[in-house]
Amino acid sequence: MSAAKSPQDAKLSGVQPDITLFVYGKLKEGFSDHRKFAAQLKQKRGTAQTSASYPLAVPKQPQCFDPECHMVHKDPHLIPWEGKGCGPIRGEVFVVSKEGLRLLDEFHKVNECQGLYQRVAVEVVVSTGEQKQRNLMAQTYASSNSKAVEAKVKKRLWEYIEEYTKELDAG
């Protein structure tokens, strides 16, 4: 049996094509969660930014909700409100397998009652390093409770940021 050559061929053959994933926080290269998922994030397509503005929020005080994590940091939450926020969100684009995406979804507690994230599609502009850019659709992790994040910002417990940096990752 030959390998599928296009997404349509893959659909017909039952093989799932790889997924384009936009990461803007701790999954970026050199950040704390990238090391944990290096095998899933090994195929980088380039740096990118969302084509539209989105709010990006972090807690003002470092914290961690993951009992297996021994760090305190400021987890970023993209709020899926297109056209709002400080501007486009900067990050990186990776190609991941369906199994890799399943592991990342499990880590982000997607589809769980108390999960903090949901996976959504966003349009991104990818730069490949040779001043070439192209738009494509990618999956990303966004806040599963945008209203709660907004309420924390209003109470000044969280703040909106333009980009998630290594300083925020370190706490």
TrEMBL record:
Domain Gamma-glutamylcyclotransferase AIG2-like: start-end pairs: 21-158
Cellular-component GO terms for this entry: cytosol
InterPro entries listed in its UniProt record: AIG2-like_dom (IPR009288), GGACT (IPR039126), GGCT-like (IPR013024), GGCT-like_sf (IPR036568)
Entry-linked Pfam families: GGACT (PF06094)
MF GO annotations: gamma-glutamylaminecyclotransferase activity
Highest taxon of the lineage: Eukaryota
Gene3D superfamilies: Gamma-glutamyl cyclotransferase-like
Protein family (similarity comment): Belongs to the gamma-glutamylcyclotransferase family.
Protein name: Gamma-glutamylcyclotransferase family protein
Annotated organism of origin: Eutreptiella gymnastica
Taxonomic lineage of the native organism: Eukaryota, Discoba, Euglenozoa, Euglenida, Spirocuta
